[in-house]
């Protein structure tokens, strides 16, 4: 398998050589680029290959990698003060895209992607999943080029489903019925979901979309919409009736840990958590985990991208790095390291198919990309503040508070936040 993978990468390197014939990769030889990176699996998979870019282009990369909270704060501070010393950086469009686009802090990558002179002819922009590309667009600006993606997914215990004759749920009604049937069987909770304030909002989104509601309506918060209330009531009732104790303390580490310990029958969350719950090194239920599309069939898609600072004086050199980092060869590399790729072609590559450890997961993940919505967060500039407002309502509801009253309070708080953005 290793030999085959190396052959595939050698072939991909030939593609890179072909790129070099159609694009002057050494046009900015001697340039130094400063790149800020999140401490992320994509970064881990790619950083040992950065020397290849330097050899190809003669450009020196100065990379800085930080844990996510510190990374986000550092990028925000640098961009808000002009961004002249920052050339390229990782970006989570669903978190910062609207703010950065409206503030004029990032380059519109569409101009680079569509350029016949700045972009290698066989770079292949059409190879990217459209839903993933759309997830980078805010305020009419393509804020970055995608580098990895994830979708919402159902994780479930195949052994328990088989033992108790439960079918894999496809609808919200079936999900609740499965949670009820499996709850307290063999000492497990029926389902685990995030309940810890702001962290719960992104995983509530597929339930909201499944009943036909949305974050906003006519530029105002939509939290008092009857369908929104219905979705929130459903989500919190699942946790209160069939979830583990202390649901208000659970974000993704707690949810995945409980499932990996064999204490939960199923959960819905980001697809990348397969690496935790189905790994024998970290999970007591590895080999017993099933994967399926999220019930209700309204998944979200989350993306990390590479962006270019509007204040940089080296934008074209930064674009060389961006298109190199997102070419087919490097997308295959990260996929072979279990980082979900954003190019369609690499999922069909023989090297990946030869080492695909769980085709069921691959099918569930890929089947959702075409119809997934990028709005896993409210499409506002002050995402954090709005998530906090709604997160407080979620905690209050889980603790027994009135759903309508708490959502009305969150609605009013959000509209106050939105009024300051105008």
From TrEMBL:
Cleaved signal peptide residues: 1-20
CDD domains named in the record: PBP2_TMBP_like
Keyword field: Signal
UniProt keyword Ion transport present: no
Pfam families attached to this UniProt entry: SBP_bac_1
Keyword Nucleotide-binding: no
Gene3D superfamilies assigned: Periplasmic binding protein-like II
Listed PANTHER family: ARABINOSE-BINDING PROTEIN-RELATED, DIACETYLCHITOBIOSE BINDING PROTEIN DASA
Protein name: ABC transporter substrate-binding protein
């Amino acid at each position: 398998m290793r030999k085959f993978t190396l052959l595939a990468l050698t072939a991909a390197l030939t593609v890179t050589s072909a790129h070099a014939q159609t694009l002057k990769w050494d046009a900015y030889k001697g340039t130094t680029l400063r790149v800020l990176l999140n401490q992320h699996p994509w970064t881990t998979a790619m950083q040992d290959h950065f020397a290849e870019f330097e050899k190809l282009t003669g450009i020196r990369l100065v990379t800085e990698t930080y844990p996510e909270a510190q990374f986000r704060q550092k990028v925000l501070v640098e961009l808000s003060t002009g961004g002249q010393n920052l050339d390229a950086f990782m970006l989570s469009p669903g978190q910062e895209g609207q703010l950065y686009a409206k503030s004029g802090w990032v380059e519109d990558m569409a101009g680079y992607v569509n350029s016949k002179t700045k972009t290698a002819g066989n770079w292949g922009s059409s190879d990217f999943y459209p839903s993933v590309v759309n997830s980078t667009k805010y305020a009419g600006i393509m804020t970055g080029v995608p580098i990895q993606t994830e979708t919402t997914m159902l994780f479930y215990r195949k052994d328990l489903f088989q033992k108790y004759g439960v079918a894999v749920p496809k609808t919200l009604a079936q999900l609740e019925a499965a949670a009820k049937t499996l709850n307290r069987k063999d000492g497990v909770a029926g389902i685990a979901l995030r309940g810890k304030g702001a962290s719960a909002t992104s995983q509530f989104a597929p339930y909201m979309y499944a009943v036909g509601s949305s974050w906003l309506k006519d530029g105002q918060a939509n939290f008092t919409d009857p369908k929104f209330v219905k979705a929130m009531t459903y989500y919190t009732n699942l946790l209160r009736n069939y979830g583990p104790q202390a649901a208000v303390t659970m974000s993704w580490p707690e949810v995945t840990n409980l499932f990996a310990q064999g204490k939960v029958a199923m959960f819905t969350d980001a697809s990348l958590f397969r690496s935790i719950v189905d790994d024998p090194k970290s999970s007591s239920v590895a080999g017993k985990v099933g994967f399926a599309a999220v019930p209700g069939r309204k998944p979200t898609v989350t993306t990390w991208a590479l962006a270019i600072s509007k204040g940089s004086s080296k934008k074209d050199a930064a674009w060389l790095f961006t298109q190199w980092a997102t070419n087919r060869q490097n997308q295959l590399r990260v996929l072979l390291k279990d980082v979900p790729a954003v190019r369609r072609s690499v999922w069909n590559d023989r090297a990946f198919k030869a080492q695909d450890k769980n085709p069921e997961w691959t099918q569930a993940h890929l089947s959702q990309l075409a119809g997934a919505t990028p709005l896993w967060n409210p499409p506002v500039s002050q995402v954090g503040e709005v998530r906090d407002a709604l997160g407080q309502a979620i905690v209050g509801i889980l603790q027994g508070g009135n759903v309508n009253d708490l959502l009305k309070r969150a609605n009013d708080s959000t509209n106050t936040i939105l009024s300051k953005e105008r």
